[in-house]
Write a structure and sequence with these properties.
The protein is an alpha+beta fold. The chain starts with a helix and ends with a helix.
């Protein structure tokens, strides 16, 4: 009986052992590393990008010089028209127009201010004339009073000592009053001269401001400073200037006239592409 059982088990055991040996052999062969021959050569990484041609040398087309002056107090101004990029221009040719709206408003305000300062100057002169004229009248009256009292002192020689003393006191009082009025008049003259001078300075400053704004309005028609081909400038974020773009003393470049004999190719590549 036992012999029959072994006869039945032995074939199954042989099959199982054969499978185990096959799996072990197959695993050992699969774990062997693959080997490749290393050869020296050029390792190339190709990155594509977009770019443009730029000139090493160029002539800048800038905002009007007057607009750079801080006293103008215009932070920025928009471009209402600019010739097409690539246009060939001659020196003095029309290139762009800047928006005159803000400048025109400031011209109106400056004209009103000039009129106001003219009135202030006239008023200062009139006030000075009236005040000083009144002060001169008081001085003349004080001088006449001194003369009268000098005569009174001369006539009092035939009077009592008390009368003579009183006449002398009155004369000294009138003389001191005349001296005080003369000093006051000198101070009034200096004061009103200062008022008039200040009014003149205010008027001059405002007139210069008005002249500057008028000049700026004329210069809003931008012309080419030299012969060349118009290429739009780029603003702070790299966008090309166009109609509606703003320029200012901090970003004054409108366009350039490149020297086509000094061209270079500039390509913009993302940092992540070469990292």
């Amino acid at each position: 009986m036992k012999k029959k059982v072994w006869l039945i088990i032995m074939p199954f055991a042989a099959v199982i052992i054969t499978l185990i040996i096959y799996r072990i052999t197959a695993f050992d062969k699969g774990s062997e590393p693959e080997v490749a021959r290393v050869e020296r050569g050029v390792f190339e990484v190709i990155v594509s990008g977009t770019g443009e041609l730029e000139a090493l040398e160029s002539t800048d087309i800038m905002i009007p010089e007057v607009l750079v002056d801080r006293s103008v107090r215009i932070r920025n101004i928009s471009i209402t028209y600019i010739v097409r990029e690539g246009t060939v221009v001659k020196k003095g040719d029309y290139v762009a127009t800047l928006d005159p709206a803000d400048v025109e408003e400031r011209i109106i305000s400056a004209e009103d201010a000039v009129e106001m300062f003219l009135v202030n100057l006239d008023n200062a002169k009139i006030d000075s004339s009236l005040v000083l004229s009144s002060a001169r009248d008081e001085i003349r009256q004080a001088r006449d009073l001194v003369l009268d009292r000098e005569i009174r002192v001369e006539q009092s020689v035939y009077e009592s000592v008390a009368v003579q003393r009183q006449a002398q006191i009155s004369l000294e009082t009138s003389r001191r009053s005349l001296e005080q009025k003369n000093r006051n008049y000198s101070q009034l003259v200096r004061r009103h001269e200062l008022f008039i001078e200040r009014a003149k300075e205010n008027l001059k400053d405002q007139q210069e401001q008005l002249e500057m704004l008028v000049q700026l309005k004329r210069d809003l028609r931008v012309v080419a400073p030299a012969d060349g081909l118009v290429v739009y400038a780029r603003d702070n974020d790299g966008t090309k200037v166009k109609i509606g773009s703003y320029v200012s003393r901090w970003s004054p470049l409108i366009a350039t006239l490149p020297d086509l004999s000094t061209l270079q190719s500039v390509v913009y590549v993302k940092e992540i592409d070469i990292a």
